[in-house]
Amino acid sequence: MSLRGTVIAVDGPAAAGKGTLARRLAAELGLPYLDTGLLYRATGRRVLDAGADPRDAGAAEGAARSLSPTDLARPDLRGPEADRAASAVAAIPGVRAALLDWQRDFGRTHGAVLDGRDIGTVVFPDAPVKLFVTASPEARAHRRWLELLDRGVATEEATVLKELQARDAQDAGRDVAPLKPANDALTLDTTALDAEAAFRAARALVRQRLGR
Fold this sequence. Notes:
Belongs to the cytidylate kinase family. Type 1 subfamily. Helices cover 56% and strands 11% of the residues. It is α/β, with parallel strands linked by helices and 212 residues long.
């Protein structure tokens, strides 16, 4: 199934599995893939590197406008500190405006699978396929905890759950592009699904929406 030129929006909260899912869909469909969350993570990291507060609009906007592809390849864009910084800069209208054209240019060039939190609602509201990938907070926290342990980051699962719930509240409660499913998004709950089952379900939803 080749869908060159098609934009597929994959949104959802942290650790719902949308990144793994979007990568596999992109490979299956022959489309480029973009993890838009990396743009905000890299912006937040640049602000932290400068010794500034990620909630500082001026510092955050400056960091967003100076991003380069090298920033997206940094090895320190994951983890609780990066999560908090990304969520903080993402709430700043100027940051979102600075990164919006970047995302749209990427998707419009050849089509793409993009994952994030506002792809279907703001970045590509006319995308023919919109998926909203979610899971229970407990399931997502357990996945994130295992990821952190695998990277050698020692932490308590209860702490991860608390931080994830705080991130959810901040993402859903911000004034600009709050996290929510688009009105025409297809929802996929991965709480009880492993990566393979989630991929099969997502592929079926894509086929359903495109009439393939």
